[in-house]
Amino acid sequence: MIFVESTNQEKVQIKDKKFELYISEDEIQKSIQTVAKRINTDYKGEEIIFVGVLNGAFMFAADLIKDIDLECEISFVKVTSYKGTSSTGKVHELIGLTTDIKDKHVVILEDIVDSGLTLSKLYSMIDHNAPKSVQVATLLYKPDAFKGKYPPKYVGIEIPNKFIVGYGLDYMEVGRNTREIYKIIE
Ligand code: IMP
Ligand code: MG
């Protein structure tokens, strides 16, 4: 990742694409605190198992869990569907669920919900193991791209159907290592 301009509207170049600053660190952190508060209220007195979705959700999971004041466990699964800037239409399971979630409240942690294809794959992976309940918390949600049945319950920030990187999200595996989020310049 190369910074091509450093005015107050920073631009970055990742491989063949240019991106511009879109969501600040402050806005990201505030939206995560709001999601954490809602989860703390909704699950008061209960135990939760968070299931983070690798790779993209590692930063969101790390920041969110610090604001959770309930008894909780965290586990990760790894799935992949994206190639470059678009979904391949197929979701591959690379690392499955290793935690026992039977009769437990599960909250899936996603970086972004786009078409919802990844979510439906995750629901079937998780439902298979008879949890008490399953909900989804995602930092970002593209409602215009969503084709799934069940939209995510906890959403940090809704965005239009544009490709973004940063704060865990990648373009061709690069660009995950920023505190802010950048939007593609078309
Ligand atoms: P879905 O299956 O179409 O909902 O896509 C979900 C996955 O695709 C996310 O977990 C991300 O890993 C990836 N993804 C979707 N939109 C973007 C984006 O704008 N930038 C980077 N990755 C994305
Ligand atoms: Mg992902």
Automatic annotation (TrEMBL):
Domain of life of the source: Bacteria
Assigned keywords, A-Z: Cytoplasm, Glycosyltransferase, Magnesium, Metal-binding, Nucleotide-binding, Purine salvage, Transferase
Molecular function terms, GO-annotated: guanine phosphoribosyltransferase activity; hypoxanthine phosphoribosyltransferase activity; magnesium ion binding; nucleotide binding
UniProt record, GO biological process: GMP salvage; guanine salvage; hypoxanthine metabolic process; IMP salvage; purine ribonucleoside salvage
Enzyme Commission code: 2.4.2.8
Family annotation (SUPFAM superfamilies): PRTase-like
Pfam families: Pribosyltran
Reaction catalysis annotation: GMP + diphosphate = guanine + 5-phospho-alpha-D-ribose 1-diphosphate; IMP + diphosphate = hypoxanthine + 5-phospho-alpha-D-ribose 1-diphosphate
Cofactor section: Mg(2+)
Biological pathway: Purine metabolism; IMP biosynthesis via salvage pathway; IMP from hypoxanthine: step 1/1
Subcellular location: Cytoplasm
UniProt-listed InterPro entries: HGPRT (IPR050408), Hxn_phspho_trans (IPR005904), PRTase-like (IPR029057), PRTase_dom (IPR000836)
CDD domains for this protein: PRTases_typeI
Protein name: Hypoxanthine phosphoribosyltransferase
